[in-house]
């Protein structure tokens, strides 16, 4: 079984690579040291990716020096596209830079210098000082878990800080929405945990600044 599946995954990765060599000229831009080539742009763009957005993408990684593939998200785990928050260091710096302002459905080929990837030491399959090439296909862009919209929804009295009551109300609504009854004590525990992790100055409120950890939008 295993032997059957492996080649299939390689084929899936390979088909994207062939897009790259099909000879059309694409728009190329340089951004903060990353070379970004747009391979495919959807005719309609619903929402461009921004810092703090939750994005869903496939990306395959190659070493620039010999085109060895060192990573293919299509064959990792179940081959599901990866979810991550953009622009906050959940992926290497070069990917954070190269995936900004990207449309769902867009494909890019990006070339990332070692300083924005794994540096002078490398890591695992990545040798020292390696320039990396990624082929990225973006599927979805959604507002991050800590968007301005979410904050405003919770902040019922619009005083730009979240009280225990406001969060309590919000949690109750959320739990009602997902239809799973929860024990009162679980509820209190979550609330306490939220304040412990977020109320850094311990004034009993979560301020806009404490909430907006990704600093992606003006609150
Ligand atoms: C990597 O680059 C650094 C800085 O340019 C250099 O000092 C180092 O020798 C390089 N390492 C290798 C293994 O090439």
From TrEMBL:
Q: Which CDD domains match?
A: EFh (cd00051)
Check the UniProt entry and state the signal peptide residues, or none: 1-23
Q: Which Gene3D superfamilies match?
A: 3.10.50.40, EF-hand (1.10.238.10)
Q: Which residues form the PPIase FKBP-type domain?
A: 52-142
Record GO cellular component, one term: endoplasmic reticulum
Give the EC number(s) listed in the UniProt record: 5.2.1.8
Q: Where is the EF-hand domain?
A: 142-177, 186-219
Which reactions appear under catalytic activity for this entry? [protein]-peptidylproline (omega=180) = [protein]-peptidylproline (omega=0)
- One family name in Pfam for this protein: EF-hand_7
What is the protein's given name? peptidylprolyl isomerase
